[in-house]
Specification:
Layout lengths: L6 E5 L2 E6 L2 E7 L5 E7 L16 H21 L11 H38 L9 H23 L3 H21 L6 H5 L9 H17 L6 H27 L4 H17 L5 H14 L2 H8 L1
Helix pairs in contact: 1-2, 1-7, 2-3, 2-7, 3-6, 4-9, 6-7, 6-8
Length: 303
């Protein structure tokens, strides 16, 4: 197995696949047809250098992924909205600007909520055991356990909704398509169906690594002030994301036994965020891949 460096995500009734500077979104419409949109990828980061520096690039890649994910999710959702009124060119431009503002605001709010839910809340909950132990290591580990539990409960709760369950099936189709290519198989429905729905470069594994790496970083926070402890945790979040990105990047390009072992917990969590897709979902994944990736040529050159 060798990494193709193609990646993607599930959207509403569809899949987004990104390869370098291009991405495609394939969506299964209500009439059964597959609608496809192919675009050039433009980073929200105007400078190229930060995207190449180890540990720094992970922070910006994380932001890029959130923005692109929200953009493609909104595109897929547009196919299932009620009939839209016909807009003039000026009104359409105004609506596009408003949607861009809304999208950016949503990303900012999502990051704030994530930091509050997974960095700040676990710390405050962990302080309840201070009267039982004075060990900083025990406190840090307990905080990390709370963080992981909150993460798993969050996934469990959202997976109970019908739309999210179907999105998790498309997530499975996305992984299966990439695994099919990277294991040297022809990209067709039969081969994709028998491929694994787990992948080491998955965003779920990235988030799980964030949980684990945060335990290590938080252990070195020795500030006496509770306010300082919280502020340092918030300030460390970008660095934690950067380190986690490098780990997931290494995992995706290595078959080392130790790396595979470290990847196991994150891949286990993927059992919650990926479900077995049906053939129609696999067809959407194949279409999304083929719009931006010449997998036949890649296999000849790399496998």
């Amino acid at each position: 197995m060798k990494s193709s460096n193609i990646g993607g995500q599930a959207v509403l009734e569809g899949i987004m696949m990104r390869n370098g500077d291009r991405y495609s979104v394939a969506v299964r419409r209500t009439n059964g047809e597959i609608a496809v949109d192919v675009q050039d990828y433009h980073s929200v980061i105007p400078w190229k250098t930060p995207l190449k520096i180890p540990f720094i690039r992970g922070i910006f890649s994380f932001i890029d992924s959130l923005v692109l994910g929200m953009k493609t999710l909104m595109y897929s959702a547009s196919f299932f909205e009620e009939e839209e009124e016909v807009l003039t060119e000026e009104e359409a431009a105004k609506q596009e600007r408003q949607e861009k503002i809304f999208m950016n605001l949503t990303v900012v709010i999502a990051v704030v909520i994530a930091v509050a839910l997974f960095m700040v809340l676990p710390y405050f909950l962990s302080t309840f055991v201070e009267k039982y132990t004075t060990s900083r290591m025990a406190m840090t580990i307990f905080e990390g356990v709370i963080r992981v539990v909150i993460f798993l409960i969050y996934i469990l709760l959202i997976s109970r909704t019908k739309d999210i369950r179907r999105t998790f099936m498309y997530h499975g189709a996305e992984h299966k398509c990439i695994n099919c290519i990277e294991h040297g198989l022809e990209l067709n429905v039969d081969n994709v169906r028998k491929s694994s729905k787990q992948h080491k470069r998955c965003g779920t594994s990235f988030l799980f690594f964030v949980m684990i790496v945060s335990i290590i970083f938080c252990f070195f926070i020795t500030a006496e002030s509770q306010v300082a402890r919280v502020l340092i945790r918030i300030a460390l979040f970008p660095l934690i994301a950067g380190v986690s990105y490098e780990i997931i990047r290494l995992a995706g390009n290595s078959d080392n036994a130790i790396i595979n072992l470290l990847s196991r917990p994150g891949m286990w969590v993927q059992n919650m965020t990926t479900k077995e897709p049906d053939d129609s979902m696999i067809e959407v994944g194949i279409r999304a891949v083929e719009e931006v990736f010449d997998w036949r040529t890649w296999q000849k050159e790399n496998l």
